[in-house]
Amino acid sequence: MSEWFDAISQWLAGHPQWLGLVLLLICFGECLAMVGLLIPGTLLLFPVTTLAGSGVLNLSTALLLAFIGSLAGVLVSYALGRRYHQTIRQLPLLRDHPEWLLSAELYLDRYGATSLIVGHFIGPLRPMLPLAAGMLDMSFGRFLAASLVASAGWPLIYLMPGWATGAAIRLPLPEGFWREAGIIATVLVLLIGISFYCSLHKLRRVTLLIAGLCGSSLLVLTISWPHLTEFDQGLMAVIQQERTVTLDRVMIFITRFGDGNIQMTAGILLAVLLLALRQWRPALFASIVLLSSALANSALKHTFARSRPEILLDPLTSYSFPSSHSSASFAFFLVLGTLAGREQPTRLRMICLLLACLPACLIALSRIYLGVHWPTDILGGALLSATFCATALALLQWRTPLPPPSHRAWSLILPACLGLLVAYALWQLPTGAELYRYK
């Protein structure tokens, strides 16, 4: 740790309220109409959250402050649009740059309340969509529901990298941790970056290319995971440092979404609903991805027979690599994200996939937090499902594009499947407290 970082961290450790205030204000400004387009909030967040992770703020506090700041920014923006309506176009900035507001209006008009969730993750749209929603008199109930979801998910992407870096700097980690973490991060960034680049430029057979990239990354991981022990142990130590009673309950609830029985039931329900609504090809796509991911996960588990971390009082006896929770949840939510993005512009398809990965990432993270999987286990599960999802999509639309489910289908699928997952997680919450007791 450098001297300046050490000195600032020591001062902030005694005055954490100042760093918390700065974090809240950055998130507020990043989501505030027009202001978010002028300040480099995303760039400022990384050093601030790195300092927070160095021991000044725990993870739950940092995420809560970011959530409050984000929600306050969008609420103020909505109130401004509702108060001034069309006259707000006469402000100097909007008079000189009418396209800022016009793009938000067009996006909102096309996708409705969903645009508030998706657009919250797109820099130029994030501060302008709430303003446009107020101008167009969107009902406050719909606006608030979408904004709560967006403000809860946004910090997970924008805060976690910096906070995890600060926490890793603070702790005495194994000697090879940073080298191995750097290699893994580089591979993941290249994988995502190449996939985005090829998709945006509409290269021929891009889905098959992505399947090959994911499959190659999975193959490399299956060969190299025995040599990544420093990364596994170091990241596990970083996450275990953040355990609290309240966060334990939250993570137990989240991890139940990925239990094998409920994931299988949700997958069957999804396929049955699609078939009942005569959505034949989407039903075939979902069935192939979910079934092949489950079978491949089971085969790999028994092939490598990796032992789980010894953190629980009563460790689980099943094998560890790859994580079945990670594989099942990524398969399920990637299917939903892929179907939601059909016949949409390329950028929106990518955003749909990223948003679909958020709940899957939370489920995967809960497995490390609860001490039942190594980090490379959940990476293996995610890459496995991504490989089968991309492969199935490439094969099914080899000649004709895969059609999206109808609006009527979505009105049944989302409430039924997500309601089933939530009901099961609540039902299994008491038994989880006993199952995931740690030393």
Automatic annotation (TrEMBL):
Signal peptide: none annotated. GO terms for molecular function: undecaprenyl-diphosphatase activity. Keywords: Cell membrane, Hydrolase, Membrane, Transmembrane, Transmembrane helix. The chain crosses the membrane at residues 18-39, 59-80, 143-161, 181-200, 207-228, 260-277, 284-300, 320-339, 351-372, 378-398, 410-429. One of its GO terms (cellular component) is plasma membrane. Its EC number is 3.6.1.27. Residues 283-393 form the Phosphatidic acid phosphatase type 2/haloperoxidase domain. The keyword Transmembrane applies. It is found in: Cell membrane. It comes from the Bacteria. Belongs to the DedA family. This is Undecaprenyl-diphosphatase. It comes from Azomonas macrocytogenes (Azotobacter macrocytogenes).
